[in-house]
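I had to read the description of the data format several times before I understood it. The format is easy to grasp once an entry is in front of the reader. For illustration, here is how one protein appears when written out as sequence plus structure tokens:
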Amino acid sequence: QVQLVESGGGLVQAGGSLRLSCAASGRRFSSYAMGWFRQAPGKEREFVAAITRSGGNTYYADSVKGRFTISRDNAKNTVYLQMNSVKPDDTAVYYCAADFRLSDNGYGLLQMETYDYWGQGTQVTVSS
């Protein structure tokens, strides 16, 4: 079992930057692949980015490629989402998710059904 707590959300102007953090408590953080998803009002939750256990492979939605970077620090039990050149369409609640893995693979990380654990979310609002 693992608990996830997101932080770092807030109001930012279009073109600006924001860094989200997801702090994990529990056993064997390095055995979990991690993902970020987001949900805007009236829309379905969508994939944003994911990272394998070791950080060796990352995956991004087309809408954020080149602007967002996912990373992790296993020594700190934390995963990050660096958001650069943000747009109003990035406005959403951002959720961190974890999936236990027996190996360092990236299978299924684009699908929210894959993940075992979820954080409470943090609001990101991008103004024009």
